[in-house]
Amino acid sequence: MKIVIAIDSLKGSLSSYEAGTAIKEGILRACPQDTVVVRPLADGGEGTVDALVEGLHGEKKILRVHGPLTDDVTCKYGIIAHEGKAILEMAEAAGLNQVPAHLRNPLYTTTYGVGQVIAQAISDGIRKFIIGIGGKLSDGKPHDLRAPDYDDYTTVDPKTGLSGLNGDLLIWNDVLKRAIEISSMGIRVDKAAMLKQLELAGKEERTRLYFHKRLLEGSLPLSIGGGIGQSRLCMLYLKKAHIGEIQASIWPEEMRKQCAEWGMPLI
Question: N or C: which end of the chain has fewer CB within 10 A?
């Protein structure tokens, strides 16, 4: 039997690779005849560079940048040269672990170092970063059918003149012969962005919903978010075409039947 181990890191304890190796050793003690392969996995934070660089046969680069408290820190990022892509972890340049608890004040900390990493990646020839996910494409069609009450994709950045405060990392999936989204990050809508995007999408009736009412009345904090689809990363590693081959869920019987006919048994 061949077993693939892909486990996220155990924060503050073991890295993804260390945890996977420990599991591998345990399996081989019980079943020495099996083949066990360890693949790093991450959720968009710690370990993401390591996981994607190994899985996509890239290389790691080291850079000195401004840390969250403006002192220099050493961070790594990944380059997938054959695909013209860069893999970045914000935590490498502006992670919470780099700021003592008594100094954790967003009014005085900075993500300037993240920009330095991006600038270096651009100078390395990287151009595969997409911003403004959700807004209209050049042909007038909406991009990705992004929900109008989630990421802010309409606010114009005064520094670049471009719309959108969100971005996704796309990777080519050779099985599907198309790009798939691996990582999503962005600033969520505030009151002005929500009202504007609901109007553009023709979804003004959503202002009556519980979450929307609370955000519009100012009783919810504004937020940012991001992460990586672990199931999609496993799809990439295991060369699967449907996410149902990776994670268990409830699928319509007709879909199960059709996928089975195409050689894609759903879990």
Answer: N
